[in-house]
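PROTOCOL LOG
Step 1. Enter all chains and additional molecules of the complex.
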Amino acid sequence: MVQDLVLNLILEPEIGTMEILKEKKSRTTTKKPMRISGAEAIVHCLLAEGVDLIYGYPGGAIMPVYDELYKFQDRLTHILTRHEQGATHAAQGYARVSGRVGVAMATSGPGATNLVTGLADAQIDSTPMVCITGQVPRHLLGSDAFQETDIVGISTPVTKWNYQITKASEIPEILAKAFFIAKSGRPGPVLVDITKNAQFDELDFEYKKCTSVRSYTPVPKIDPRALEQAAELINQAKKPLIVWGQGVILGQAEQELQAFIEKTGIPAAWTIMGESAIPTSHPLNVGMVGMHGNYGPNVLTNECDVLLAVGMRFDDRVTGSLDTYAKQAKVIHFEIDPAEINKNVKADIPLLGDSKESLSLLLPLVKKNTHEDWHQEFKKKDEIEFDTVIKNDLKPTKAGLTMGEVIEAINIASGNRAVIVTDVGQHQMIACRYAKFEQSKSNITSGGLGTMGFALPAAIGAKQGAPDREVVAVIGDGGYQMTIQELGVIFQHQIPVKIVVLNNDHLGMVRQWQELFFESRYASTVMVNPDFVKIAEGYHIEAKRVSERKDLQSTIDEMIASDKPYFLEVKVEKEDNVFPMIPSGASVSDIRLK
Amino acid sequence: MKKQWFTISVYSENNVGLLNRISGIFLKRHINIESLNVSKSEIENVSKFTIVVNTTEDWTRKIVGQIEKQIEVIKAFYHTDDETIYQESALFKIKSALLFDERQIQNIIKESNSQIVTVSRDFFVLAKTGRRHEIDEMHDALEPYGILQFVRSGRIAVTKEAMPITEILEQAIK
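Step 2. Run joint prediction.
Step 3. Record the structure below.
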């Protein structure tokens, strides 16, 4: 069998992390500098940063580094994605699920420009990622040489920091700085472009981890007076509401947030980037805010008296119209990035700093409470939403399958323990609404940028970043075809990702908007799709198709039980809509239930 | 909110690419930079950008926040015209023959407090430092006689209040 042959060739025994660390330590604490090439130095830098897995694609200007990767394959695994965009999303998936820095590598020119979407995605969703690109030799810079492109210029607006190395001697210091910047403070992507001469030339290699940059303050100092003011406001509040975002996950403040809500009894809602930080089943977790979020937290945002925004940035998909957003409430904004304060919503009390620290300092200052009456209002709204929306999504009476019941079947099969990786569109909103989570870092999605094609490669990274966890990619038929070539990676490395394509033969979300706001003129949203099962089978991935309800749960159970990659296409209703919905530019109070 | 003039002062590391990063922040919000000057500052190895924009205070505050967020920016401030001492410089290149033919030009030179930088057989160059309107007035006065070349610098400014960059840097190093 071809598959077995590939398996034998590719799968190598895993080296324990501790062994790698020990070995790294012995190498990096060497006093005498080693005289090595820039390319080898790059590999040593990666090892010193604890990197054991990178995603990328070789090419002319990065070949010296690939030559070194060949020599170091026992310690550093390189996964050849089928497109550089796939490398960035895989690195993102890896970073999001593990909290470590994802690394992607590409050659100059088109290799580098193919990273741009992933960089932009990581920038807007604050994902720690380091991208290394090859560049034409120093003497050819600016000459329109073969595969030359100004990737530093191109990537500037979509990176937290970027830099072009033209001398081998710069490599250790710049890469150390790149990792420090990518993961510290509000994380983000960093791109380091390295000219080919710097890869070939030799340097005296010594590696020192970067711990500070004089012009950069990763975490602002907490103002104790602001904490006191916040506590006073919280203690007086009759109808407080917490909306938390990804900052809680990035700052590893899940426990602190949970302790805080349990003491104060404040209902807590989440943005899609913050989902899973607190278990779905937690009684104080009142659901999702935003355009397709839950009815209660959206409507009651405009009735709360104190709004505690924790590690979130008031994205327009969360707030709807700012002119009518939480105008009655005093806003306490927990935020690590000073530029986010008063950017969209005015903060009455800005609480700058690390949310983990702010929440633990605030905990002893707040009074115990339960806010029972206030919680009743959420319950009432939940009942309305259940009767008008959720019931039909999860327990439909019509013949066609809904996306919601597929997500529910995944919840049941996985015991709410899976990492759900979603793409962008209707299936994403449905998955965020109905997926249940018990563990943090479990909802991996392209939130800010809305990058179709994100899920399949991100799921590869997520599975490799959390090998012990079940990873289910839920993807629409549109987005799936944007990065479908990454099935090649899943096949070659036998990465046991479970892929569920919710096929409605449409670009569903755009079609929904066309139906609601463009008088059902379905301009370019109808898709004639290939046989997805055959395509997966072409990659020797076990594949099934479900189009009837009676087969759904059993097939999903089979998929989850499998320890191999698995592809499942579910034919869902073609023209279902996602509700509730806050129409673009409307107020959160004007959320539509149908 | 009404639009007004703001001088944005940015203290930064002297690195390739930072100008691109800073100008991109204005581009992203579709705000025109009225003038831009980059020079060394009072602190060794620290550069200073002086950027003039005409926009609302709300926008200016947000832009300054985004600028300060850049890794290599140490600190950024914004000020109104009342809060700064500011000047611009201009050079006027004029035909030498006019000095003799047009007596009025000598009066303009005296009254405008400008300096003659160089004189050659064919042309002479006047330098003028001052507020924008003073330079504009001098330009208008000279224009009827013919200006061969004219250039004006970006605004340079110092603030009336202190800018504690050294302390910020010292704290950062701690």
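Step 4. Note key features.
Chain A touches chain B through 22 residues (CB under 8 Å).
The first helix of chain A runs from residue 2 to 10.
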